[in-house]
Amino acid sequence: MKARIQTAFLTKIDSIGLPIIALCWVSFFWGTTWLASKEGVKHMPGLQLATIRQFLGGILYVAYFILKKEPWPKGKQWITILILAILNFALSNGLSTWGVKYITSGLGAIIATIFPIWIVIICFFQGERVAKLAILGMVVSFGGICIIFFDYLSDFLKPEFQFGILLSVMATVTWAFGTLQTKKKAASFNPYFSLGLQMLISSFILLAITEASGTNIPLSQIPLESWWAIGYLVIIGSILTFIAFIYSLQHLPKEISSIYAYINPIVAIILGFFIFGETLTQSIAIGVLVTLMGLYLVNKSIRKPKKKKHLL
């Protein structure tokens, strides 16, 4: 009897405890990757950093599954993988990494959270009706963003700051398209193997772009600080945290597994303040909370069953 109770307890811990631990890992460490990116791009081009990160991460994933003799994608699965490689990694990750070179890591993390708004807008232009809750969420989020940017009004006069904001916003648009593409045509084989292939393919795309534009610097000129940042981004950001992310998605309800999106920017802002001395004022703190509340409403409207929506 005692052995049965212990077995049941351990099973419950495994079924609930490990996914929650994975979610906590994602919530914290994906927030720290914004600081690693900021540190890395201080000393090298942002797209080159993204290229190296995705190449190393992709190679490690793919090599592991080749050794395991995992089946390779077939037919149209390659088209989906290529599209996701372009949207999620070459564009979204590449642009957000490039953008954080010109803005704070905390601000980059905040902007990255607005992608659900683009999902609603994209769906609207595809003929879907917008729920009232989504509209309310977008209005609240916009108000929060306005509060945040109140402390950055003088920075908008700087072309580099404007460029960083533009890159970061474009990254959220491509991530939204990538998210919708994943939901519609996600590959039916190992998601981890697919992830590695997307990273590897995107690294070659970025390499072609950066080499053609002549923006890369010789590897010998990349300082140790950037290599440490790349190593952190590969091991913590691209491998361990992505594994934890997919694991939490597979074992937790969507409403719970999405909590990381609200914690990541808070982690980035707080650590950015202590490590890089980035701006953290009362208005920014209030603006972040208001923005995240709006995004919560948008996310809730997206996940709500259609039959229960109040449509306009």
Average pLDDT for all residues: 85
- What would you report as the Rg, rounded to the nearest angstrom? 20 Å
Number of helices: 12
Helix content: over 70%
- What oligomerization state is this entry in? single chain
The rounded distance between the terminal residues' Cα atoms is 58 Å
Provide the β-strand percentage band: under 5%
The arrangement of helices and strands along the chain is HHHHHHHHHHHH
Biggest sheet descriptor? none
Number of strands: 0
Shape: globular
Q: Low-confidence stretches at least 5 residues in length (pLDDT < 50)? A: 307-312
Characterization of this structure:
It is built from 12 helices and no strands. The chain has 312 residues and is mainly alpha-helical. The longest helix is centred in the N-terminal third of the chain and has 40 residues, at 2-41. It is globular and about 50 Å long.
